[in-house]
Amino acid sequence: MTRKRPASLEQDLVESRISRRLSATEAARSFSDLLNRARYRGESFLIERGGVAIAELRPVAPPRFTGADLAALLRSLPAVDDGFLTAVEEAARNQPQLPDSQWER
Length: 105
Description:
The chain is of the alpha+beta class. It has a domain at about 10-55: YefM-like fold (3-Layer(aba) Sandwich). It has five helices and three strands. The chain is elongated, with a radius of gyration of 26 Å. The chain starts with 8 loop residues before the first helix and ends in a 12-residue tail after the last helix.
């Protein structure tokens, strides 16, 4: 199979992260192995059909959520009113008592 020249800088960047290029048929035949290699080895694959890139299989990036994002989210929420706090306290008081654990000494 001949490798086609990337059409854009974006495609160049995608291909720089790729461990291996393979056909859709090859990917279908070894899908479980590809998933394991992505998860455990961090490998990425560019899947092609007819020599044209159609998909990328790569490990999922961890979410990017900072403490500042959390603080901004909490500030954006409506203020809690006294009725809500009273309802929460009442619900907590009315929880059934759990039996003592047989596992504790």
